[in-house]
Write a structure and sequence with these properties.
17 helices; 17% strand; alpha/beta; 473 residues; single chain; six-stranded mixed beta sheet
Length: 473
């Protein structure tokens, strides 16, 4: 066994001293897998849940216990660059990930790995749906869906479509022949320790031993400039490919970016040699019945003519800009902000300022003030101080935002200012009042939910409750 990207599989762990570090969804699947192999592992978690006396806390003896193991199966959320991880490797412990262990002994000819900063979930779900409807039963798993190595997920499948996060990518010692990458943008910088390492880690899923072809987003300059990090062959896919094609219409996915995601899925089908991949009629029939992902540009209701769109899965600038692009010409109250991971919000400000339709930005803690500052910085060069800017009549907002008068009824085309809101309820109420009579309240946070919510689902539920409060009032 090696201490880098270990070329070991689950079956190699029989009889070994094994620990599990992180006892969430993947950790519990790893426990079931190890028990099916006759292995009873040491269980460690940073914050063990109440009532789990058998799970040690990382900081209270957990690391010492893991240090006595031969192999530690790490949950993806625990950074392999953490000091504790370095300490384990220095002690000769092999750090592995469940997905890497599974892929090492899978039939990789029937596996597709899909990665990307954003778009990977939608592309994975579309690809899995099309494969299944074209007569090839497929599991969609990995970062979404099922955990492929979980005994509870066992089934008869022809293919596996595996969404790979940047965290999981660092655990892979091999790649399937065909991979796909949907986008590239700075993200998860604290976990990876820097933007260039993030890029290398993310794209490594496409270029480990066994990789032959990467189907990639050809509209991304960042990706094109890093083509050397992809598979030996690359096929570039642009949103403008297949002009006039309508086979993807039954998918019901808004936005040009989703058109490209569908085209990437089709190109993968062709690379796999799937019958029907070149037949528009067959693909259109296969696309029917697709159900979009929850909290990904999902319209959850209409109140007094205002549509409420849940895009809580958006944790980065890139999908938020794509969400705005999905509703051209519409009046949008955009709710952004959440856990502050230090990402650059200047591109978000630039994209909103270039948007011709009325757009009000409502920011949330903790990153809200930095987002407002990015808008002020982006707008100031246009006309000097913010209050004199030609980009939308900016003025200091008494609530702590940028463009207060706009937030209270600005109706002209273009940017309508920013307002810092104390919480999601306040942002939804203000956005609803501004968006009437026929606009959109769009929750597309460009930030994770942690710190204020349990996860993106909890944030989405809070958004739905706030919408219902608008209806009641």
């Amino acid at each position: 066994m090696t201490s880098g990207r270990p070329k070991i599989a689950w079956s190699d762990l029989r009889g070994a001293r094994v620990g599990i570090w992180g006892f969430g969804r993947e950790g519990q699947a790893s426990l079931r897998k190890l028990r099916s192999l006759g292995v009873e592992p040491v269980l460690v978690d940073d914050n063990p849940a109440a009532g789990t006396e058998t799970v040690l806390a990382t900081a209270a003896g957990g690391i010492d216990a893991l240090g006595r193991c031969e192999v530690v199966v790490k949950t993806p959320g625990i950074s392999r660059y953490r000091p504790e991880a370095e300490r384990l490797r220095a002690a000769g412990v092999v750090l592995a990930g469940g997905l890497g262990l599974w892929l090492q002994e899978a039939d990789r000819e029937r596996v597709v790995c899909v990665t990307g900063t954003k778009g990977k979930s939608t592309t994975s779900s579309v690809l899995g749906h099309l494969l299944t409807e074209l007569g090839r039963p497929t599991m969609v798993g990995g970062n979404i869906g099922s955990v492929p190595y979980d005994p509870d997920s066992a089934g008869e499948y022809d293919y596996w479509v595996i969404e790979v996060s940047s965290y999981q990518a660092t655990d892979l010692a091999s790649s399937p022949p065909v991979t796909a990458v949907t986008s590239l943008h700075p993200d998860h910088l604290p976990w990876h320790g820097g933007v260039e390492r993030y890029y290398r880690d993310k794209l490594s899923a496409c270029a480990q031993p066994g990789a032959e072809l990467t189907v990639a987003n050809g509209d991304s300059d960042l990706l094109r400039s890093r083509a050397g990090l992809l598979a030996p062959r690359v096929e570039w896919v642009s949103e403008s490919d297949e002009p006039g094609a309508t086979w993807m219409a039954p998918l019901g996915l808004p936005g040009r970016h989703n058109r490209r995601n569908a085209l990437i899925a089709r190109r993968v089908l062709r690379a796999l040699g799937i019958a029907g991949a070149d037949d528009d009629a067959a693909l259109r029939a296969a696309a029917a019945g697709y159900v979009g992902l929850p909290s990904r540009l999902a319209t959850i209701g209409v109140v007094d003519g205002v549509s409420f769109v849940d895009d809580s899965l958006s944790t980065n600038v890139l999908p938020t800009l794509a969400a705005l692009d999905a509703f051209p010409g519409r009046r949008i109250a955009l709710i952004v902000g959440g856990e502050d991971r230090g990402i650059d919000y200047a591109p978000l400000a630039a994209g909103v300022l270039e948007r011709g339709a009325p757009t009000l930005v409502l920011t949330l803690p903790d990153s809200g003030p930095r987002i407002s500052a990015a808008f002020e910085s982006a707008a100031s060069p246009v006309g000097g101080p913010a209050g004199d800017s030609a980009a939308g009549g900016f003025a200091a907002d008494g609530a702590g935002g940028f463009g207060g008068p706009a937030a209270d009824g600005f109706t002209a085309d273009g940017f309508a200012g920013t307002t810092d809101c104390p919480d999601l309820d306040a942002a939804v109420a203000r956005g609803f009042g501004w968006a009437r009579p026929d606009g959109i309240v769009l929750l597309s946070p460009a930030a994770p939910s942690f710190g204020r919510f349990r996860d993106y689902r909890d944030r989405a539920e809070a958004f739905a409750r706030a919408m219902r409060a608008c209806a009641a009032s």
